[in-house]
Structure formats: structure tokens, C-alpha cells
Amino acid sequence: MATKSTAKSTAKAAAGSAAKSGPGVSKLAASVGLTDADLIGMYKVIATARAVDERMWILNRAGRIPFVISGQGHEGAQAAIAWPLERGKDWIAPFYRSIATCLTFGMEARDILTAQYAKAIDLSSGGRQMPGHYGNVANNLVSLSSPVATQMLHAVGIALAAKIRKTGQVALTSMGEGSSNQGDVHEGLNFAAIHKLPFILCVENNGYAISVPVSKQLAVPDVAARASGYGIPGVIVDGADVLACYRAAKEAVDRARRGDGPTLIEAKVIRLTAHSSDDQQTKYRSAEELEGLKGEDPLPRFRAELRDAGVLTEELEASIAAEVKADIDEATEYAESAADPTPDTAMKWVFAEDWPGETPPTWGFGAGHGLEGHEGDASAAEGAVD
Amino acid sequence: MALKTFIEAIRETMAEEMRRDESVILLGEDVGLKGGVFLATDGLYAEFGEDRVIDTPLSESMIIGTSIGAAMNGLRPIAEIQFADFIFPAFNQLVSEAARMRYRSNNGFGVPMTVRAPYGGGVHGALYHSQSVEAFFTHVPGLKVVIPSTPYDAAGLLRSSIRDEDPVLYFEHKKMYRSVRGDVPATDYLVPLGKAAITHPGTQITILAYGLMAHYALEAADVVAEEGISVEVVDLRTLRPLDKETILSSVKKTGKCLIVYEDNKFLGYGAELAAIVAEEAFDYLDGPVSRVAGPDVPGVPYNHVLEDWFMVNPEKIADGIRKLAAY
Asked: Which of B184, B216, B232 finishes a domain?
């Protein structure tokens, strides 16, 4: 059931809801049933995600933050696939590369950067988790862990509750193709398909599980081919083609909302950076391969598409660039100057209530004996996070 | 007040909770039409329908993982793992996810979920239908672990578990399902989590036990009473959070502590109890903190002679009491 979802094959479905072109609705926007403001909004998310990501690497290399895990190359697919979901109603269980997904669903650059600095004000975890583990209840973004693909079942459970409670919500989870090999993915897809749950699995296939190429992860070329085993549609999209991603997601959301069950979307994306700040990708990727990635970068491609369609004027492009830069600068400043969490909070929220039986350590909640200058240390192991 | 079996108390409490709160759902293997392999959910499918009593595929990780998700989106799932022995495929979801969700999100998310599973041996269940798994989960901050021993406590603790805002593992000794009876009031009472009960007051030796062993400890206490040894039995009821206060005040009174558990001895739950007593009641001890626990083999053997050899019983406990009393 895996089908190549090209612009042509899915334009029809989108055209059903397409507005006619006119003021504020270019032909390009009309072709996917959106407005120019939507396209600009998507572009801003993608540009912001890229800029915040680049800033993270600079801060890491400057010794300001200990660890970076990156979403560069995934942003176009992420913004476009999250776009048709309804903020504040639908749910997303993201993964560690999901910066653009989280920005689309309401998180801001400062929420990403306070997580990088692990400050008390970090929305995702109050500085408890490594960066990249974004999630926030106010944005319906599920908190995630490091063992991969566990979030799959949480999204399926959210969809189950949506069906039982008749809330009309849709739940989406995203993960890499490496994670798609976990047993939880099979168990979740099977259950979601049996009960026709309003659920979408988005696999962002960047070709690598840290260092292991897709040829050693899958016996078939496409993760989407597995969908047929569950009796659900498996759709393949070019992750650098933002509007193709949007169309595939819109179709999947509509299908879920109608009660017709789950969809597996596989977006073929690229990983522009190393797996993480602790990974040396030149050990397993050639210089030619890395050079070739630039031609598949979703950001310049979408920018050119919007320019050609007359949606993005030179003036607007410049003002967005300035706005994004100011936003990232402000967010960096904000995160850097925010307070660290204090040890007296470290035993909070094991449970909803405090348990007098759970006693603090013999050293209490003092400042401890932390080593000076630890901020710039890399994690101990290469690939400490997979 | 009605006399009920252990399993009736559990089943009827689930039904009452599902009537009281429509966000309570039940999912697991064979919990629907069949009513569970032990009939713990018998009749619930007929009363509440397939939306709220869900027969799942054989996917334990999915049962727990989707319960976590459903709990985050407004439901209060009761997940049944058919045998505690089969909970390990869900270990990651319980330990990495359910236990840490509130902590890792800085109180953003909670997982109000109850996981029920029958545990324990003595029923010809062999290696994979007899295990005691509490030690794996009591080790994990963020999980509450409950093991009731009477129908009264089973109902009161199950209500508290279902209404709790955090994940609770509720283990039921399967040998007790139909062999243990007791009075259960028809009221909506709660037995609070984290509170032990002194089920047999005494003065010379404290026994710490839970589940089936709490019954065997009472039997052993009666046996040695005839020999002039006065035993105080503390039924822990909740293993974590632990009621240290009741334990320590009993041990400080008697000066001797015998810990009884069915799981194999090495690093079993009782090892932590022994450490706590040694650390926090040392000055009061008048003998070694001792344990009567299962032998260290990889499972309960099937053959009845071997199974009898494995199982802790009142006689073995009485021997342990006599040894400790002689100090």
C-alpha cells in the first residue's frame, strides 16, 4: 500500500478545500488550500528552527552548553506535517530532532534555548532532561525520553482516549527510521489499525541511525512499505518538498478525523549535521556525500519556491531574516541569564504529592561539591544519546 | 458487611469505580468476553461495553504504553497484565516512561494509571506463572507498588490506586483469589497508600510481610505463640512508598526483626527492609535482622515436590522465628 505521494497524486485531495487565488492567496497557496500567510508562517518556523539550531552548535563549540542534538534538514517536513493539526486540541509526541515540530505547535525559540541551557524556567523539564527532549503540556506536546520509539505508544494511547472520549482529537508521533525498528512501533501500529484510531506515524527517514545506514536497518527501501502489513496507508513524501509534506499530512489528518484510522507517512529527509555534538560523522559519511546534501536542503528550496510564487518578496525575506535573528539573540540572552534549578527542588514531582517517607540524601540540599567550569564538558561517551 | 473472596473484592471494586467515574477504562488480554483468565473482570464487558473493557492483542508494552498515553489524555486506565511473569516486555514503558513522566516534565504530565497483575507461586504455575516481581519495580522512584492481603484491603487499596494521580502497580497473589475470604463493607471506603497495618500485635519479634506471606506469618505467629513466643506481624500493604514509621516503631519495641518474602532471597524486596532496619533501628536490635525467603533458583519448579521445596510456608517461617527468638 506504499504509494509515492507526488504533488500530482495528492493535489486533488487538497484541491477539495482549496481556496481560489486572489488577494492574500497566491496560486501556490491555493493549490494546497492555504493562504499566503500560512506559507509565510511555515517559512518562518523553518527559518527559526534552522537559526536556533545553528545557534545551539555555536554555543556548544563556545563551551556554553554541553550537548546538542540537531534537526537540521528535517525542518521542512516537520513544519509542514504539523501544520494541518489543530494547536491546543490535537496532540504530538515529538522526538529529539523535532525543533520545527515543536515551534509549529506553539513553543518558541526561547523555550528551545532554555532547554539547551537546562535552566529552571525550561518548559520541557525545568532543566532535568538533556536538550532535545522537548515537550510541554500547554502545547499538547508529550514529554519524551531517550529510549527511542517509546513515544509511539503514548500517541496511540492519546488517540485511544480521543476516540473513547469522542473529543475529535488527532494524535501524531514522529521518529527517525532507526527508531521505527523498535517493537513498540509494531505493537502500536497494530493496535491503532485494529481500532481505527485517529493516529498518524510520521517517520522522518534521514538515512542514518547515528552511523548505521538505512541499508543495514531495513530489508526494504521504505519504512512506508510496512504499512500494508497493518492494512493502513503508507505514504512516501520528499521531505524537502514542504508543500508535498503538507498535502500528505492534511490527507492523513482528514482521514483520522473522519474515523478512517491511522496513516504512516515517511518523509525522506536529510541529516545536515552529525548525529549530535558528540558524533564525528566523517568517520562514516564521505565528503562527497556531505557536499551533495546541500542540494536537498528544504530551507533554500522552500524559499525559492515562495520567491517564484511571488509570496516572498525581497523586502519580506529581509524583514523575516532580521526578525528571526533578533528573536534568537533575545532568546539566547534570556536563556543564558535565567536561573539554574536549585537542589531543594530536585526531589519534587516524583509524585503529585510529597512523600515524607522519601528522605533527602545525607548531604541534604546544599550546593554540593560540583567541579568548577563543568559547563563546557561534552558528555562522557560518543553517541551518549541515540 | 458482606463476606467476599479476594477476587470478588477486586472485581466488584473495579465495577464500582467504573460506574462512579466514566474515565476509568480497563484493558488487557482476555479481559473482555472471557472476563480474564482468573475471571477478575468477569461481567465488566457486558456492563460497560467494548469501548471501556478492551481486549488487547498480546502486546504487553502496548498495553502499558497506550495506558500511559490515555492517562495523559483524560482517562484513568486499569491495565491488566495477565501474569506478572509477562510484565517484562513492558518494563521499559513502566520504568523509563510511566515512572519518570512527572519528574522529567517537572510536573507537566502525570500518569494516573493502575497496573494489575497476578503474581506468586504455590499454584503449579512453574517458572513463568509464579514469579514475584515486586523487587524490580519497588526499586524505581515514581512507581507506587501495592500488594494487598485481605479482601478489605484489596478493595480499599484498589480504590486508592485508581484515584491516585500517579502510576500504581497493584499485585494480587493468585493463590489468594479464591482461598482468602473476608468482610468487605458496602461503603466507598479508602485504604490509604503508604500505610502498613499491624495485623497481630506482639512483643518479642516483629515480622514484616505482605501478600500471601502476610497470611503465612499470622499462621506461624499462632504456632509459636503456643511455645511462648510473642510475635508482632506487620502487613506492609504498600511496598512503596513504604510506611517506615510503623515498621521502625514495631522493631524498636520488639528488638528483633524477621522479614518474610516469597521472591528469591538475594536482593529481593526484603533486602531493602533489612537495610532500613539495620540503619535506622540499630540501637534497638537484640538479634540479627533475619530473612525467610525463596531459594535462589531462576524460578519456581513445576513438580509438586520441588514447588513445595521452593515455597515459603508457615512451618519455614516458624523455624525462622524460633531461631531468632533464641538470640
From this structure: B184
pLDDT for residue A2: 44
Q: Packing angle between helix B60-72 and helix A183-194, nearest 10 degrees?
A: 70
Question: In chain B, what residues touch A199 (CB-CB under 8 Å)?
Answer: none
A67 contacts A277 by C-beta, under 8 angstroms: yes
Q: List the single residue in B74, B103, B144 with the smallest CB-CB distance to A161.
A: B74
Q: Could you tell me the CA-to-CA distances from A276 to A96, A378, B37 in Å, in that order?
A: 10, 11, 48
Which of A148, A160, A189, A199 to mutate to test binding with chain B, by most B CBs within 10 Å of its CB? A160
B168 to chain A: closest CA residue? A351
* pLDDT given for residue A22 in this prediction: 87
Q: Is residue B192 part of a domain?
A: no
* Domains of chain A, CATH where assigned: 2-364 (3.40.50.970)
The model's pLDDT over B218-249, given as tens digits with 9 standing for 90+, comes to 999 999 999 999 999 999 999 999 999 999 99
Q: Which residue has the cell 525550561?
A: A122
- CB nearest to A188's CB, from B62, B100, B108: B62
Q: Does a structural domain hold residue B145?
A: yes
- The answer to whether residues B95 and B233 belong to one domain is no
**Which residues of chain A does B74 touch, with a Cβ-Cβ cutoff of 8 Å?**
161, 165, 167
Under DSSP, is residue A205 helix (H, G, I), strand (E, B) or coil? strand
B137 and B213 housed in the same domain: no
Residue B255 within a domain: yes
Residue A210: Cβ-neighbour burial (10 angstroms; 0-12, 13-18, 19+)? middle
Residue A7: what pLDDT?
38
Which position has the grid cell 505467629? B221
Sign of CA dihedral B99, B101, B104, B108: negative
> Under 8 Å CB-to-CB from A85, ≥6 apart: which residues?
A92, A105, A170, A172, A249, A253
Q: Spell out, as residue ranges, where chain A has pLDDT lower than 70.
A: 1-19, 356-357, 367-386
Q: Percent of chain B having pLDDT more than 70?
A: 100
Looking at the fold, whether B202 and B136 belong to one and the same domain comes out as: no
Q: Taking CB atoms and an 8 Å cutoff, what residues of chain A touch B92?
A: 147, 150
Domain span holding position B205? 197-325
Question: Cβ of B59 and A129 within 8 Å?
Answer: no
Query: What is the pLDDT at residue A373?
Result: 46
**Cell numbers of A68, please?**
546538542
Cell numbers for B170: 497493584
Average pLDDT over residues B171-190: 98
Task: Tell me if B189 is assigned to some domain.
Answer: no
Size of interface A-B (CB pairs under 8 A): 157
Residue A356 confidence (pLDDT)? 63
Among all residues of chain B, which has the CA nearest to that of A152?
A: B65
Interface contact flag, B92 A147, Cβ < 8 Å: yes
CA distance A348 to chain B (A): 7
Q: How many domains would you assign to chain B?
A: 2
Tell me the catalytic residues of A: 271, 275, 284
B101 and B16 fall within a common domain: yes
Q: What angle do CA A112, A114, A115 make, to 5 degrees?
A: 65
Whether residue B12 is found in the same domain as residue B153: yes
From chain A, pick out residues whose CB is under 8 angstroms from the CB of B100. Answer: 145
B241 and B169 share a domain?
no
Out of A91, A153, A187, name the one closest to residue B73 (CB): A91
Write out chain A residues lying below 8 Å of B103, CB-based.
Answer: 128, 349-350
Query: Does the pLDDT value for residue B75 go beyond 60?
Result: yes
Q: What is the pLDDT of residues B108-134, one digit of tens each?
A: 999 999 999 999 999 999 999 999 999
**CB contact (8 A) between residue A154 and residue B56:** no
Q: Confidence class of residue B182 from pLDDT cuts 50, 70 and 90?
A: very high
B284 neighbors B252 (Cβ within 8 angstroms): yes
